[in-house]
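Supplementary Note 3. Input sequence used for the single-chain structure prediction.
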Amino acid sequence: MSDSLEKNLQEFNETFITLKSEIQKAIVGYDDLLTEVLIAIFARGHVLLEGVPGLGKTFLVKTLGRVLGLEPGRIQCTPDLMPADILGTQIVNESESGRRVLIFEKGPVFANLVLVDEINRATPKTQAALLEVMQEHAVTSGGERHVLPTPFFVMATQNPMEMEGTYPLPEAQLDRFIFKLKVPFPTQESLVEISRRTTGFAEADLAEVLQGEDLLRLQEALTHVPVAEHVLHYAAQIVLATHPDDPSAPERIRRFVSYGASPRAMQSLVRGARVRAALAGRTTVSIDDIRSIALATLRHRVILNFEGEAESVNMDGLLREMIDKIPTPAQVAA
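The predicted structure, written as discrete structure tokens, is reproduced below.
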């Protein structure tokens, strides 16, 4: 490993610890959740946060924007929200010469960290408008392409699908999120601490730890963390095992799953595992790094069939069982 990479990884570790510590001045608990959210950001991925209302999902995203030094954008999704409300639209304006001209008025997606609040309360038409934004980091309007600022992240929150007034996200859009993270309900100790911190008028004084250029530089450095061939093959094996027609798929996957994870899941596994390895102080990705982020990477990319839905199969339990049945390279060698 080159000295420059080693130096960058050391800087990354120090920055990560400082970031998390600063966020925890405002956010109570959620230690694992904060780690996974920051891993996604350093892996250049969008994040989908799922949880019932009132768990602090929106506040978490706002806090992230403050400590990361990113320009925030916010979209509150409702059933009457239209694509132009989030992307922007062409408006008629008058030039200095008195002629009427079309000018593109930018929407709230033109920011570094865009909070899409309650994304599954928007209609499918509006949800689809985010596809180009999330994949291409650009908006096309009136035949012109408008590039979004860098770095760019979408942090979306959604309520559980069984709640009233929600629209399930299309599979193509779910696939654009590197992780789907479930926000747990706070423990008794956390609830007490939340009441101590938030029932007054004073807000936590948060410092800006990073700026956009520094974040981009560290993201670039993390892409050079090496991944051994046997680790890549293991990651590919996990993705293939989610497909019911693959010979390696366990019996319960073949029984309950309709569609498995896409090649984008493989990319997400490797990108996230690189950050996880660097966070653990390792200079190369291990099998444990792949396994540790597999659930967050796959839970929104595997689609249950009718039988799976009818029996209310728990996706996390199904995937854990599948991952445990896939032999590691060490087990194969033995």
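The longest helix spans residues 3-23. The chain has two domains: 1-184+209-223, 225-329.
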